[in-house]
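To illustrate the input format used throughout this study, we show a single complete record. The first block contains the structure-token representation of the backbone; no residue identities are included at this stage. The design step must infer an amino acid for every position from geometry alone.
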């Protein structure tokens, strides 16, 4: 059934006069009569009594008025939702992030972006390492990743968010806790709390590179998969760890000191997505994240 016929009928039900209805819709009275006749034919019953100078709706007419009003309201709302989705101002986005970003910077970044996209629904998934998020993107199980570069997959595109240097985490009571800058060789005999390199951890690769440049490889290690676990072990005096400086932003962090390393390495946190992804919401989210990242300048 044409929406034009229903829209005409609703105006006719409000005016109860063919001439006034024609004036409101900027058509001839004959056109209104034709539309009413077409609607009655399609419905299969009389909708209005035209025996007097003004119209009177029949019981069927009153029933159709209620149904048509609800239907057109639903269609209008659906149109607005579709237009919002097409413009990238609404919809659902699944974001996968590495654990070292989740409790640190991500809440502030996403919080500011969400304020500008109030109709966006977000789903989050935390994963230990960049390689896993690359796999999820390639399998189309997530829409956007927050990772540490490098991004190895040729099927993915990425954009930098902020730099995050690697530093040495030591217990607050450690002999190096008050040092301005340290040579990693000075902790070569201590237990190192590390991420496993075999799982594709960027931090693990870069931390091992720093150790080798300092002239050693850790002999005693404790492997971890979560940043918060590593930070907690350092605070408990179980060892030292090379981690991103941004970990100092963890809420409630106590008993730990971040010390700059002489041969420190700068890591880069970035957004990554599939090159063939044309989702307008993802595109707008990336632009908003870039804008917020520039405003924050140095979020770590």
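Output of the design step:
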């Amino acid at each position: 059934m044409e929406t034009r016929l229903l829209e005409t009928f609703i105006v006719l039900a409000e005016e109860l006069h063919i001439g006034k209805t024609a004036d409101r819709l900027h058509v001839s009275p004959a056109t209104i009569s034709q539309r009413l006749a077409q609607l009655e034919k399609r419905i299969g019953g009389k909708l209005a009594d035209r025996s007097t100078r003004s119209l009177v709706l029949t019981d069927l007419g009153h029933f159709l008025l209620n149904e048509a009003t609800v239907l057109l309201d639903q269609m209008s709302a659906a149109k607005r939702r579709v237009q919002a989705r097409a413009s990238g101002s609404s919809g659902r986005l699944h974001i996968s992030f590495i654990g070292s970003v989740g409790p640190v910077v991500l809440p502030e970044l996403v919080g500011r972006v969400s304020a500008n996209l109030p109709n966006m629904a977000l789903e989050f998934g935390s994963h230990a390492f960049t390689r896993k998020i690359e796999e999820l993107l390639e399998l189309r199980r997530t829409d956007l990743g927050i990772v540490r570069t490098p991004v190895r997959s040729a099927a993915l595109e990425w954009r930098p968010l902020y730099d995050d240097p690697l530093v040495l985490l030591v217990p607050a009571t450690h002999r190096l806790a008050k040092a301005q800058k340290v040579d990693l060789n000075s902790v070569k005999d201590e237990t190192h709390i590390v991420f496993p390199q075999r799982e594709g951890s960027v931090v693990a690769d870069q931390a091992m590179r720093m150790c080798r440049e300092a002239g050693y490889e850790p002999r005693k290690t404790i492997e971890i998969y979560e940043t918060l676990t590593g930070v907690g072990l350092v605070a408990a005096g179980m060892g030292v760890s090379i981690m991103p400086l941004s970990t100092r932003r963890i809420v409630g962090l106590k008993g730990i000191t971040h010390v700059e390393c002489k041969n420190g390495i700068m890591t880069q946190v970035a957004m990554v997505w599939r090159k063939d992804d044309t989702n307008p919401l993802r595109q707008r989210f990336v632009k908003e994240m870039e804008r917020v990242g520039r405003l924050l300048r140095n979020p770590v």
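Structural context for interpreting the output: Residues 1 and 42 are 8 Å apart (CA to CA). The domain at 3-86 is CATH 1.10.10.10 (Arc Repressor Mutant, subunit A).
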